[in-house]
Specification:
192 residues; alpha/beta; four-stranded parallel β-sheet; 9 helices; 4 strands; 49% helix; 12% strand
């Protein structure tokens, strides 16, 4: 369980970059990228923080409680309970998405438990030195990834832009728009 700490995950991300100057982090990955660039502010030129769950403070209590409830279900191997929790967060008619997400979360029980109350970047001042252009993608109505965290991220980074989708699951419901947004943002040659 010691692995599931943002600095450890960020160190793995750093190793995997292999010279890349752009990166996308989703949820836990957004926290790991935020931790990485807070410690190495010139590492990347462009970063997408998609559905960040926490940044410089813990998740809101309702969000943390929901993650811990999911963690308990996953750690107990209670697929039915976990699926019900995932389905409660998803727009109707997305059964395949709910099943895939449930299966993924069943494997991540220890991670969910560990990161539910962690703070990716304990020192907000460290983000003021980040030189990268940041695109923050938020969802409306997503308890796991509160829009307030995305707004916090935009305010914390010097060069950040927010795009918020009117959906709790924009990676499914707004796939085409999201893909175009990412291509547009990452398709511009890096400054480095």
């Amino acid at each position: 369980m010691d692995y599931w700490r943002y600095p450890a995950i960020a160190d793995d991300v750093s190793s995997a970059l292999d010279g890349a100057r752009q990166a996308i982090g989703v949820s836990l990955g957004a926290g790991a990228l935020s931790n990485l660039i807070s410690r190495s502010p010139d590492t990347l030129d462009r970063v997408v923080l998609m559905l960040p769950a926490a940044l410089t403070k813990p998740r809101p209590p309702a969000s943390a409680a929901h993650v811990l409830e999911m963690s308990t279900a996953a750690l107990n191997g209670d697929r039915e309970r976990l699926r019900a929790l995932v389905a409660a967060d998803a727009p109707g008619g997305l059964d395949d998405y709910v099943d895939d997400r449930t299966d993924a979360l069943l494997r991540l029980g220890p991670a969910l438990d560990a990161v539910a109350t962690q703070i990716p970047v304990p020192d907000p001042a460290a983000l003021l030195h980040v030189s990268a252009e940041i695109l923050v993608v938020a969802a409306t109505g997503d308890l796991l990834h509160p829009a307030e965290t995305a707004h916090e991220a935009v305010a914390a980074f010097p060069k950040a832009t927010l795009v918020q989708f009117d959906s709790p699951a924009p990676m499914v419901t707004h796939r085409r728009e999201l893909r175009a947004l990412l291509v547009d943002f990452l398709g511009v040659p890096s400054a480095g």
